[in-house]
Structures are given as C-alpha cells and as structure tokens.
Amino acid sequence: MSLIECVPNVSEGRRRVVVEAMAAAIRGVPGVILLDHSSDAAHNRSVFTLVGGTRDLRHAVLALFDRAVAEIDLRAHIGVHPRIGAVDVVPFVPLEDATMPECAVLARETGAEVAARYGVPVYLYGDAATVPTRRSLEDVRRGQFEGLAAKMARPEWQPDFGPLAPHPTAGASAFGARPLLIAYNVNLASDRLDVAKAVAAAVRERGGGLPAVKAMGVPIESLGIVQVSMNLTDYRRTSMRAAFDAVARASASQGVAILDSEIVGLVPRAALSDTDPADLRIRGFTEDRILEHRLERLTRLR
C-alpha cells in the first residue's frame, strides 16, 4: 500500500479542548496514524500531520471536518496567519510508493465530498489545481475569510466544489497535492513589525529573494517580539540553513538580532543534512521533529 501524508491546517490554536477533540477524531479512524500536532496561539492555528492510505485518509479528513465545522466560527477568529476556512488547507503529500497524481486525485475526491457533506466551498491548488491561476495557495487565500464573499462573487473565483458563497462560520477550504514543505519560523529580538516585514520581503522568492521561499512578518504579542514566518516549498533549492542565514543578514542590516527559530510540524531528515540544529537555534529540537524518525518508530511499534 502506498503511504500518503496529509497536513491539515486548522484555524484554532488557543482552545486546547477543541484542538484535542480534533486530534482524537483523527486518531479514531482505523488505518490512520496521527504523527504530530502542534498549535500556536499567536497564529491561532493548529497543524496536524497524519499518514495512511487513500481511503483511510479520506475518512480522517471527514472526521476532522465534523469537529472543526461544529466548533470553529471564523466570524470571531483572530490570528496573525492568513486563512479562509475553519479547516483552512488540506494538502496531500506522496511518501514511499505514492505518486503526486495519486495525491491530486485524493485531494479532488475528498474535497468534493467535503463540499457536498458540509456545504463548505472547496478550492483546488498545487498539483491538484484544475485552473492554472489557482496553483498558488497564497492566491487562493488572498483576501482571507473577511473578503471571501466578494471574491467568490467574481466568476473567476467560483469554487471547484460546493456552494457559490462561503459557509457562514467555516468559510471555504483549499485542498491540494504538493511535495514535502517545511514550515519554519525565525523569531527576532525586537517588537518592530516593520523590521520583520522588511526582512520577509527581502528573503521571499516573490520579492526577489531566495527560491522556493514564502515569508511574512508577523507580531508575536504574547512574547513582545516579531517573527519571520516562512514556508520552504522546496528545501533542496533553499535549505533551512540558507533561509536562517538570509534572515540573519537581513535583520542585522536593520540592527536587529535573531532570538531563535522553530519548526512547525515535521521535517525530512535531509533538510538538516547540511547543518547542526543547534546552529539554527531551533527551539526545543529533538529527533521527534524528523519525519523519518516518527515513521521508523511507527514501524517498530507495528
């Protein structure tokens, strides 16, 4: 059986009881293993990492939607991370014998079922996209939940599946297929949001920075600091080391030092092959942050 990773991002990172209920719903699906889940209060977002086969992952995603649609009301949601939905994004990632076309089919079929069952509009992105202008997740998510109704009224932004207006509390969801992605944040020893935004603009690909890097500057008010929040969409083109060094150079040019960094979810072992995690000041790093370590442990337990 081919093994597929699914990494749903949910717009809830503050109510632990709700997050744990969603985790329990995933764990309750036979054939699916929840490898990791983490929450961030400032982003008000939780990331779940699960693996399994196509049929079982489809059931797990539906179980997650059962809880998320019932518990999350985006009309009252506040966080620094862009979002359009209660279950904001559902990417499928091929592992072992799985293929990208297989993941694209799974994204389309599961997205169609979610739209039919919950009345949540679904957009397809990445390698699952059927419209070229929707391959980029940030284009799908631009305008966020608050601008979603007006966006969906435009013919070019009607959803791939589901109603032609947002779900009143759950918004819309983006389903996609993509390669392994690293969510990597660097915290700056400053509370100046203008600095974080300038650094993010300097390092992201769209601004002429590093290839395969998406970045934004956000405040972490609970800690009195700012953060450069990044997605490394191809760590072979830009490694964590290269991203960290670029942030360090750009922030130093603004007179600001790096405090530490953090991984959200799991990373492939190869992503750390060129550096010592200590050199990146990764907060709370252990071998458990490595995807293959989790999978190897799972194999031993079986």
Offer a quick outline of the entry:
With about 300 residues, the chain is an alpha+beta fold. The protein folds into 2 domains: about 5-175, Formiminotransferase-cyclodeaminase, Chain B, domain 1, CATH 3.30.990.10; about 180-300, Formiminotransferase, C-terminal subdomain (Alpha-Beta Plaits, 2-Layer Sandwich), CATH 3.30.70.670.
| E-strand count | 11
CATH-assigned homologous superfamily of the largest domain: Formiminotransferase, N-terminal subdomain
Taken from the alpha-carbon principal axes, the silhouette is: globular
Task: Tell me what portion of residues adopts beta-strand conformation.
Answer: 15-25%
Structural class: alpha+beta
Question: Which spans of ≥5 residues are poorly predicted at pLDDT below 50?
Answer: none
The SSE order reads EEHEEHEHEHHEEHEEHEH
What does this protein structure show overall?
This protein has helices at 16-27, 54-71, 100-118, 137-141, 148-152, 193-203, 240-252, 291-301, and strands at residues 3-6, 9-10, 33-40, 45-52, 87-95, 122-126, 173-177, 182-188, 213-220, 225-232, 258-264. With 302 residues, it is of the alpha+beta class. The chain folds into 2 domains: 3-177, Formiminotransferase, N-terminal subdomain (Formiminotransferase-cyclodeaminase, Chain B, domain 1, 2-Layer Sandwich), CATH 3.30.990; 182-298, 2-Layer Sandwich (Alpha-Beta Plaits), CATH 3.30.70.670. The strands form 2 sheets. Strands 1, 2, 3, 4, 5, 6 and 7 form a 7-stranded mixed β-sheet that branches. A 4-stranded antiparallel β-sheet has the order 9-10-8-11. The protein is globular and about 50 Å long. The two termini are 15 Å apart. The mean pLDDT is 95.
